[in-house]
Design a protein that fits this description.
Structural class: mainly alpha
Strand order of the largest sheet: 2-1-3
Distance between the termini: 69 Å
Radius of gyration: 25 Å
Number of helices: 8
Largest sheet: 3 strands, antiparallel
Order of helices and strands: HHHHHHHEEEH
Length: about 190
């Protein structure tokens, strides 16, 4: 059977741990896109870094990398990352926001299936969202352009905003009170 494989990190930690500018921009992105923590942002940055590294490598090869560049450009266009990425030079201009916009969590929010980014994440994790008729429970799923129109609810749900004052008791349903009185009446009759 062998030992279980050792999982590798999908992200790299920053070289300078306590850079206030980096921390403030990362925390703004985390709150804007409703990410669970900064590690999710670092995973996205690692994906961006892979595409940039590969495009730099293919630019240095010259004419020999034309076929490989078509594969990378095709993948980015299928994923819908960036608006008009048609050359290797434009891959270098991509930003982390381009990748964050393609996450399922962001797409659910943009389609109006959730009111906030946190609510979109909760709906996805709890299995209320489907892509192309299949339940997807990963908020970081990158939605391809052709499947974006198929994002819908997997099972019916009603999203209502309920605002109550702090310290106030929850209102008793009108139906619950008569049933409680009716159940109490036969008990008194038996005694």
């Amino acid at each position: 059977m062998g030992d279980p494989r050792k999982l590798k990190r999908k992200y790299e930690t920053p070289r300078k741990q306590w850079d206030s500018d980096r921390i403030s921009t990362e925390s703004k992105l985390v709150t804007e896109y409703g990410l669970k923590n900064i590690r999710e942002l670092w995973v996205t940055l690692a994906e961006l870094k892979k595409f940039r590294h590969e495009s730099r490598r293919l630019l240095s090869v010259g004419e020999g990398g034309v076929e490989e560049s078509k594969k990378i450009l095709g993948k980015l266009s299928r994923l819908g990352v960036g608006t008009n990425v048609d050359t290797l030079d434009k891959i270098l201009t991509l930003d982390v926001r381009d990748f964050l916009e393609r996450r399922l969590q962001t797409r659910v929010l943009k389609r109006g299936l959730a009111r906030t980014a946190k609510q979109a994440r909760q709906l996805i994790v709890h299995g209320f969202v489907s892509v192309n008729g299949r339940k997807v429970t990963s908020p970081s799923y990158i939605v391809p352009v052709e499947l974006e129109a198929t994002i819908a609810y997997f099972k019916p749900i009603s999203i209502e905003v309920v605002r109550e004052q702090k310290g106030a008791k929850k209102p008793v349903k009108a139906e619950a009170a008569p049933q409680a009185e009716a159940a109490a009446a036969p008990a008194e009759a038996k005694e």
